[in-house]
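User: Can you help me understand a structure? I only have the sequence.
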Amino acid sequence: MTRGEDTAALNIQVEIELEETAVCRDDDDLEEPSKMKTSITPFVLVFKNLTYSVNKFKAVTLPGMFCRKESMSSKTKLLLNDISGEAREGEILAILGPSGSGKTTLIDALAGRISKESLKGSVTMNGENVESAVLKRISAYTMQDDLLYPMLTVEETLMFSAEFRLPRTLSKPKKLARVQAVIDELGLRDAAKTIVGDEGQRGISGGERRRVSIGVDIIHDPILLFLDEPTSGLDSSCAFMVAKVLQRIARSGRIVVMAVHQPSSRVVGLFDKLIFLSHGETVYYGSPLNLSLFLSDFGRPIPENDESTEFMLDLYRGLEGVVGGRKSIVEFNKSWQEAQSLHPHSTNYPNDESGSLSLKDAISARISRRTLVDTDAADSSIGLAWTVSEFANPFWLDITMLVKRSSRISRRKPELLVNHIGASVALSSVLANLFWNLDKTEVGVQERIGFFAFLVTAIFFGSTDVLAVFIQERYIFMRETAYNAYRRSSYNIYRSIVVIPRLLLLAVLSSSISFWSIGLYGGFPGFLFYFLSIFLSLWAADSFVSLVSGLVTQVILGYILVLPIIGVFLLFSGFFIHRNRIPAYWIWFHYISVVKYPFQAMLLNEFDYPDLCLVEGVKDQNKSCLLTGLDIVRKQDVTDLSKWSCLWITLGLGIFYRVLFYLSLLFGSRNQRK
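Assistant: Let's start by predicting it. Here is the structure, written out as tokens:
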């Protein structure tokens, strides 16, 4: 079978449980293995001999003839060393260890977030290698931080996730039914209509927020669920509740793999298998029930009234400080597993009546079993015939949903728009008052030129608040695009569209207040061009600052980068030094300065009129015009382009920056280690 056919069949996973509206089971059901859902062929994730290292560079001082020389040498640090194990459908595999032990690295390795060139060993599912594109469709990864929009309710958060992850062919009522089922499954019914909230806006509790994060990732019913320390930062009661929810998710027919820092005994009791790591090596792998026997055989029996997990963590932390101590328990674990017949390499995959199913067929069988019989999906051959694209929705629908979500958030938090409007009105009013009704003199001409330069500068510096917008939601974007919720191109287009109403409003306010009160030339056609100049200045500024926000990860770094660049753009715009006075080796910067073009467009709109007389006087005993608009155009050396060309270039630069922003999203926001 070709790769395309394989991928097409596996895409059916997108509709797993889309029409299923079953609510969560009672807690008592979770503790009864006989009630656990299993597939016709249970899925088994097996990882063998996983090894991963990175190069650490350090400065090395080398002796020289007259002085000491410094060079860089690389030192390899082993993050994972020969890790093996398995995770089965219906079970929770918990990865334990202190900070720096390799828990998150192992999760990333299993989730395909480490490049195959760097990761040694194998990760297979039902004995078959899983391609990266396929893994994205059948898995979900819940990060340690709760990456959610605070102004959306729990139900809205899950509904938007459903809109992004579930196929457009599924009706709205069925998507809503899936959301309600997840709400019940996660025990969020009482909080469904409450906003998520954050530090500045009261919302749901920390434990509920963590469960919402899990719900966002399981809305499309993945086979594999990876979680990075889902109980961190929660009290013991909330941590147990989250672990209980994860057990319910596993028992519903999923593989759950999670990293845990230091769980309580109640939480450990919900796990099916444990892997203890120490500096990237396996200290223990097996059932929690066998941990006491393991420690007894190692010669360190658990004291009475001590909790086995805490004792184990304390034990090998102590051994890490003893020469050869860690190696002794690592080697003992290997021999003990072989003696207990727990070695993962001996995994046998169940067969159905017709023999062992391939991974593709196993997924098709799962869909046939779990989809309602009132559709053609009940036919087990659907896996061969049904095809969808890599993403659940076409790009235009991605854009529509992103705009809809942004609009809802903006309506509930209008402070940003109100502040923009207030700042624009205040600045325009001050400028209108300061430059009120400028006269037709040489001084008045210079004041007009200064006004245009300040206005364009204020627009660009005032747009730097855009930095925080994307940087704050960067990790939400990375989480959603990592598993193909929507395209990066869709996000870029959405960002370009959603700012237009705000920029239009600001341009209308600024131009209406300042044009007539200052007494600018051109009449109504001149006003319209002036309005377009301000709007496209705002557009280019927003696009440029968006590009910078895509290149940095911290707001302060963005300001450090963007403010000097705007200052240099202003320096070469032609206001401080005219084009014909700029040295030849700097002239290229004059033409890439995005500030040049709207500034020059405003100058031409004001002065480029053949019959415009600015200063009248007597010359040779005759009344004549001593200073015309064309004289100012030539004096300012803005004759290289027409005013409309300047506007088109400003628009083009804004689009160019948006394209670069998209490239920064494409190559700079990937969730994969090298």
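Now, to help you interpret it: Residues 1-39, 342-347, 349-355, 371-388 have pLDDT under 50 and may be disordered. The radius of gyration is 32 Å. Let me know which part you'd like to focus on.
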